[in-house]
Amino acid sequence: MTRSPAWVIGGGSGIGEAAAHALARAGRHVIVSGRREAHLARVVAAVRAAGGSASAAVVDVRDAVDVASTAAAVAHEHGPIGVLVYSAGTNVPDRFWGGLDPVDVSSVMDANLHGAVRAVHAVLPAMRERGEGRLVLVSSWAAWRYSPGAGAAYSMSKNALGVLAETLNAEEGPGGVTATHLCPGEVATDILDTRPSPPTAEARALMLRPDDIGEAVAWVAGLPPRVCVNELVVTPAANSSYA
Fold this sequence. Notes:
It is built from 7 helices and 7 strands. By secondary structure, the protein is of the alpha/beta class.
């Protein structure tokens, strides 16, 4: 059975990269997107070397026209997009109210939330028309439980992804399009380096791996259309109940 393609935004590293590999192993053609062309090319080459099917599409999630035109080009070349994985995201080191700059808040919201809205808006009409589609919004534990270290901008943006998923499921679920608010605990990715005090190698060794979340994405994407996973929380066993 030929599966519809998956578009992974933020697929050049971390969780997005792992999701691209997992979806390709599940038999989907994966379109890997992000701003860094060299990173995308590396991921595509690795997927293909492992026997999967992948291609790259550079996109800037801050630009609504770019997102829409990229979605249209992907669908034209590879067929209707069946799965959207939104894994783009960022944070800032100076994230607490004592030094938080409103410009930084806007930047984080634009990448983490507004970019997701642009991507959903770009693929939703075709999914609705087909009566089938899966939207996976990679969020955070900080959207599920208050996490002081995440900072205001990151926490606000990720909490809003949960609301985005709820509204999509309420309005589009009966028509076959479902969304998952995916909330990982600590994952050993490059975003950890944006923390005011990046974790040690010993601390990172106890965290989830990107592949753990990539497999979760592929599992959600592979479920029958009648199934909606509204929210999925995944944490490292070594620290499954954060303070």
